[in-house]
Amino acid sequence: MAKSYRFDGAADLSQVLENGMPIYPGDAVPSFEPYSTLKKNGVNLTRLVLGSHTGTHVDAPIHFIEGGVSVDAMPPGAFIGEAVVVDVSSREPGTGIVPDDLRAQVEARAVPGDIVVLFTGCSRRWGDPSLNSNYTYLTGEAAEYLASRRVRAVGIDFLSVEKFGAKVPVAHRALLGHGVFIVESLGKGVEAFIDSRFLLICLPIKLAHGDGAPCRAIAVPIDQD
Amino acid sequence: MAKSYRFDGAADLSQVLENGMPIYPGDAVPSFEPYSTLKKNGVNLTRLVLGSHTGTHVDAPIHFIEGGVSVDAMPPGAFIGEAVVVDVSSREPGTGIVPDDLRAQVEARAVPGDIVVLFTGCSRRWGDPSLNSNYTYLTGEAAEYLASRRVRAVGIDFLSVEKFGAKVPVAHRALLGHGVFIVESLGKGVEAFIDSRFLLICLPIKLAHGDGAPCRAIAVPIDQD
Predict the structure, then answer these.
(1) Contact partners, residue A33, CB within 8 Å, separation at least 6
(2) What is the ipTM for the molecules in this complex?
(3) Beta-carbon neighbour count of residue A94 at 10 Å?
(4) Closest CA to B220 of B198, B205, B203, B204
(5) Cα(B97)–Cα(B146) distance, rounded to whole angstroms?
(6) On the CB side of A68, how many CA atoms lie within 13 Å of its CA?
(7) Of B57, B59, B55, nearest in space to B17 by CA
(8) What count of CB pairs under 8 Å joins A to B?
(9) Please, which residues have CB within 8 angstroms of residue B160's CB and are 6 or more apart in sequence?
(10) What is the number of other CB atoms lying within 10 angstroms of the CB of residue A129?
(11) How confident is the model at residue A11, as a pLDDT?
(12) Using a CB-CB distance cutoff of 8 angstroms, which residues of chain B are in contact with residue A75?
């Protein structure tokens, strides 16, 4: 059974980079400033200031793991993989996803090498500042469980997989320590893919020694011929 | 005849984002600064300052066309297409590509909807400052010719498709004015694809109202089954 990818039907899973956008509290404050315009200067140009973890982005192992690989050193094909969305939106924001929230859905639908995207529902409230330090996160046990399933990557539809303000980054360590990269701040568009298998492309810009980097994440529908 | 894409064999066509990297003279000067480290702070984080046209990037129509579309408003599938490389490396840097340099190769290998990548050879000398204001460019006539072939996009392996310091952006206007987007500062890796047809993925980060934006550009080999 041949597969084909419907690139022209790709859905955007990325957050817009704009002034005032939500960021993980304490991170570098982004700014996007048009410094040359068609009217005044004959060309539109923009200056961008942002953090390596601003907006939709990839976390590379070196973000938290000494000696870990950086975004520029990973093979680019690593950032393309089939994906499934696990719906954990029944959890209250501020609480932690445990293995029992994942097992039935993961075991029914995900295979080794897949990207597992967690839909917490927090993305529906992107821009609501009360959520920026009180979002649904992944417990260390649930992160260990996902790593044990040999997934390629774990995505989430809000600022971080980690409990806000965690003293020990247990979820990041469990995933990145097993070479499972992370995609954070995916957009609310992931909800539409809860029942689908799709191709997720999330290529980060090539930041030298990058602990992470912004990416444009998209979902490409898969047709079975 | 079914096609399959060998994502795990993807080649990187992107330049590394790093301090001191080549930029179009006069553009915003980029800087990449680790402001938190594992050793000192328990986490690696980087602050990025860059222009919308720093490193490998996409130009959207609004870069030069009043009322043109911006990178965030283009459908993401637009940034994925089959591509061919046209070898114009016999041209001396500082001279302009004319239609006769393109016709035989384009007519033999490119079809409407393709991305045509110009290999000028200047990418072999990325980092040589003498080239930053003296690279091989696209004349207005050659840009008009490519637009008339209804290509999806035009890529080039150096800082700009435009003659350095041009008073009138004839190449940009001919392409962007026909809705043909541009990918600039592709890496020297394009040379390896001179005889191949491949899938080019060049998704720019989602900059609000972006006149352009950095992208990670990769070449995915196509297998014919």
Answers:
(1) A46, A47
(2) 0.97
(3) 15
(4) B198
(5) 11
(6) 26
(7) B55
(8) 181
(9) B24, B135, B137, B184
(10) 10
(11) 98
(12) 8, 10
Task: Give the residue on A whose Cα is nearest the Cα of B3.
Answer: A4
The token pair that represents B218 in the structure block: 């990769």
Judge whether B115 and B183 are in contact, CB under 8 Å: yes
pTM above 0.90, yes or no: yes
Bridge partners for A11 per DSSP: A219
The residue of chain B nearest to residue A8, with distances taken between CA atoms, is B77
Antiparallel, parallel or unpaired: β B115-119 and B80-87: parallel
Smallest CA-to-CA distance from A48 within A67, A63, A28 is with: A28
Q: For residues A23 and A20, give the distance between their C-alpha atoms in angstroms, rounded to a whole number.
A: 9
pLDDT tens sequence across A187-215: 999 999 998 999 999 999 999 999 999 99
Specify whether the CB–CB gap between A199 and A82 falls below 8 A: yes
Q: What is residue A122's three-state secondary structure? A: helix
For B102, the enclosing helix (H) or strand (E) is helix B99-109
**What is the helix, strand, coil percentage profile of chain A, to 5?**
25, 30, 45
